[in-house]
Amino acid sequence: MAFFKKRDRDAEPAAAPTAPSVPSVxxxxxxxxxxxxxxxxAHSEFVKRASCARCGxxxxxxxxxxxxxxxxxxxxxxxxxxxxNADTNAGITNTVYHRLVAPLQGAMVQAKVTGDRDAYxxxxxxxxxxxxxxxxxAVSPRAKTDLAFRQRLVAYLVESAVTKDxxxxxxxxxxxxxxxxxxxxxxxxxxxxxxxAGQFWPMAALFKHQMELAYATIRDTGxxxxxxxxxxxxxxIRMEYSTFCQGWLPHLSAEDGQRLLAxxxxxxxxxxxxxxxxxxxxxxxxxxxLRSVVxxxxxVCESCGFQIDIAGGPVxxxxxxxxxxxxxxxxxxNCPFCKAETARV
Length: 345
Prior knowledge:
This protein is α+β, with helices and mostly antiparallel strands. The protein contains 9 helices and 14 strands.
């Protein structure tokens, strides 16, 4: 029985909502629960293996969000493209992005040809604002609950795109990439995903080269410091590699899949979940039930995205008594169950 219930759940019932109109960019995409070939199904019994670049701990608990956070210190460690795509592995997030870009393609090309960074920035801002709204599962969970965080995230994504796409060297490489992508062939397979053939390996090598150049520039120009998640060095480019590889793995043979993972340094990236002893907490920000591995100091609440200070221990709400574990650097909050203001002693 749940003794602590969020107050907003007990409020007067709202008027029946009207059915929202479905944006055309997502109208025909697969969603969670749709029947898909086994080769495209995500494997929930596996955890994405990653070591935290900040504290060195290995990922032990499966994530429910695409952004993977350290189980011990709460630092961003990697990205899970399968979770971002609603358990379909169908590349929904990429498809939505490309459909948002399509009607703006001419204006984007014009901005790049003329070197108009401000115009290009405004176009990307329009795209990423919509993309984050349409694909909330693809970004940090904090973007769903914290408007200021979401605005900072969008600004970082936009400026990263401007930094890369307005670089003359990258523009030349984009032409080469376009030619390689156009040469790829899709080979249908009965009951499974299509397989890729053609210039795949040169395309993969060029992608890696472009990301190395882009993230070096993003770092050197200070754009990396705009990332509201403040990831340790090297994590952002690893997330790009993870996304690229996961998007292509269903379309490669097992042997080629292993080769791809090896070339991007991601070999053995998924392992079966091993049951871990965990400790229970309640998020002081949103009231969600949390589980942490023994010895954790800071974890990220996958419901609201705030970093939670596990090491600080729970503080009972002075009104209803709910044991609340406070977000990092927060000493006063409103109880998510009774709304009473409470503070750490």
